Amino acid sequence: MTMTTEKQKSSTLPMIIVAGLFFILGFATWLNGSLMPYLKQILQLTPFEASLIVGSFYIAVTFTALPSASIIRKVGYKNGMALGMATMMIAGLLFIPAAETQIFPLFLFAQLVMGTGITLLQTAVNPYVVRLGPEESAAARISIMGILNKSAGVVAPMVFAALILSGFESYGGQELTVAQINNMADSLIMPYLGMALFLGLLAFAVKKSPLPELPSEADEDDGKTHGHIKEALAHPNLAFGVLALFFYVAVEVIAGDTIGTFALSLGVKNYAVMTSYTMVCMVIGYILGIFLIPKYVSQHIALTVSAILGLILTLAVVFSDSHSFVIANSILVPFGGAQLPDTLLLIAFLGLANAIVWPAVFPLALSGMGKLTSTGSALLIMGISGGAFGPMVWGLSSSTSLGQQGAYLVMLPCYLFILFYAVKGHKMRSWN
């Protein structure tokens, strides 16, 4: 047996475990796409207030990414993963009193705690994927993890609809009575209790698993956190990478989580599953990434194509006819699919443009970071906070003359910056 074969074999089990964690991350994250219009309906929220449901989830990243890196340096990657899932378990339990009282701030707090747990888990698992193999093929490995993450995004809205919205399909697009609101709110309790128990068991299982510890910066002076940050940001490819991921997550969450709210405004009954359409497109994009990168297309070329496609689709979303069904009649209805407005499907197609961005940016940004990898990873994870601001800017813009459809114009500058990073930003190794 060659040394290469032994290394591949030794990394197989860790990758399987990490793959399972990416599925859990995706499931918990993309529940927001169903939760946002659901709470908008039962709590009678404005589009901006509904965007805070997603915003509170992602804003946790801003405050907890760097502390997460510090925690991982102290306890290790494996314990960091277990702690992340334990925090997610607590968040699941918090949804129970939130549902019983129907107090909006309690939902926001539960979302904030869930975002904190996911940030810790993200900061721990992403370096595994980058460092368990050659750097040049890291985008392909992250794409595999992305398929699982986004496949969970396909499944989560369906599970949400089956377990929570079952029997409430006729409530879509109408003003609810107090009894109907209470029934819908109560339907949250058992599913979130089950999710909390599952996460707790999984945290214990990971803690006791044979997952090996990656080399870390545990021997470094942990009191030099600011020094680590300053040293890491001295690499322009990382600094611009953080901004690229900020704008990427902004457009990813807009496409994945606002599509249900927009569908509700158009009177689409199955609004809770609309996120699944965007996630299916992302899965297709990840599969293309696995086959094309790096054998046929380099990471930065794939990123360039993604940014240009995002710009084109954004303009198509804004200027399309929301009463036209040409796309659905061509590719869905003949196969028994739903007849959905072209605008909704164009939003879903943004999943294709978004799929390769994270897998391409993450390794390009961490290139040459060495001992600063975990700090760089934490800074990149902070880019996820774009998921808080993207939907909120969309929600605010929806209240203007642009309306909900025109508000998708906020994605244009995001894709323009991603294009800059693909063409120039990732190549910069010095600020001089």
Q: Please, could you describe this protein's structure?
A:
The chain is mostly helical. The protein has one domain (11-209, 222-427): Growth Hormone, Chain: A, CATH 1.20.1250.20. It is 75% helix and 0% strand. The protein contains 19 helices and no strands. Helix 2 packs across helix 3, helix 3 runs antiparallel to helix 17 and helix 5 (104-131) runs antiparallel to helix 6. The longest helix has 30 residues, at 236-265. It is globular. Residues 1-9 and 218-222 have low confidence and may be disordered.
Task: Give the helix/strand layout.
Elements: H1 3-30, H2 32-42, H3 47-75, H4 77-101, H5 104-131, H6 138-163, H7 178-186, H8 189-207, H9 225-233, H10 236-265, H11 274-292, H12 299-319, H13 326-331, H14 342-354, H15 357-366, H16 373-382, H17 386-398, H18 403-406, H19 412-423
Helix pairs in contact: 1-5, 1-6, 2-3, 2-10, 3-4, 3-5, 3-10, 3-16, 3-17, 4-5, 4-8, 5-6, 5-16, 6-11, 6-15, 10-11, 10-14, 10-15, 10-16, 10-17, 10-19, 11-14, 12-14, 12-15, 12-19
